[in-house]
Design brief:
Layout (H helix, E strand, L loop, with lengths): L4 E7 L3 H12 L4 E4 L6 H6 L1 H20 L12 H25 L3 E3 L4 E4 L2 E4 L2 E10 L19 H5 L19
Parallel strand pairs: 1-2, 1-6, 2-3
Antiparallel strand pairs: 4-5, 5-6
Helix pairs in contact: 3-4
């Protein structure tokens, strides 16, 4: 089999894409995986997992408020800067760890969004790739809204990296970060 020919080519390195790629590699198939964002996927890097880190502290605050005067004498305060640092430590290892894991299984990695040429061929990193099976397992990325005044909006990626917590915030949409 030529270097740019694969049994399976997976687009997206989140948990769904990784599961397919690993299972196929374990079955002895020649596998490649591509992602235009950090390896590990949206959930681990910019969605579910970092949101859970930030959400965890709000649960502590809410419980403290509910128990204030019933055993809780002083309400805790958020140190946003330290919380963001902890979140970054939590997520920073994901791309490198994911890449190491996939490479260790003999899976070829591409760091770009491929373009379909035909139903079984792609162009990625200026290379023509052919694959018997192409799996699309892409996650989400924030969509820019197109209405007057949209320049004042931040995306969920922006929110998850705020240096300072605003006094007020309004979420638009029903993605996982905004829920």
């Amino acid at each position: 089999m030529k270097e740019n020919q694969f049994d399976v080519f997976v687009i997206g390195s989140g948990i769904a894409g990784q599961t397919v790629a690993k299972a196929c590699a374990e079955a002895g198939l020649k596998v490649a995986i591509a992602d235009k964002r950090e390896f590990g996927g949206t959930c681990a890097n910019k969605g579910c997992d970092p949101k859970k880190v930030l959400l965890g502290i709000t649960e502590v605050l809410e419980n403290s408020k509910n128990l204030h005067g019933k055993g809780i004498a002083k309400l805790p305060k958020i140190n946003w800067k330290k919380l963001q640092k902890f979140k970054k430590e939590f997520t920073a290892a994901v791309p490198k760890s994911t890449e190491k894991d996939l490479k260790g299984m003999g899976i070829k990695l591409y760091h770009q969004s491929p373009k379909f040429l035909t139903e079984d061929s792609l162009m990625v990193e200026e290379k023509k790739i052919t694959a018997k099976t192409i799996v699309i397992a892409t996650g989400y990325e924030p969509r820019k809204l197109s209405f007057k005044g949209n320049g004042h909006l931040l995306t969920s990626d922006d929110f998850l990296n705020l240096k300072k917590l605003p006094k007020q915030i309004t979420f638009i949409g029903a993605g996982y970060v905004g829920m």
